[in-house]
Specification:
about 0% strand
Length: about 40
């Protein structure tokens, strides 16, 4: 099941807080892993 836009937005705002990093840092990390082929599903 694909999450709704609202659910995705909420996760994008709360996940960095749990990790203790800025949202931009988390997004940059995800994009870096995707581009380099190291982003995997759990």
């Amino acid at each position: 099941m694909v999450p709704s836009v609202a659910q995705t937005k909420e996760l994008l705002q709360t996940r960095p807080l749990r990790e203790g990093i800025p949202c931009q840092t988390l997004m940059a990390s995800v994009l870096h892993k995707y581009v380099h082929g190291t982003l995997g599903e759990r």
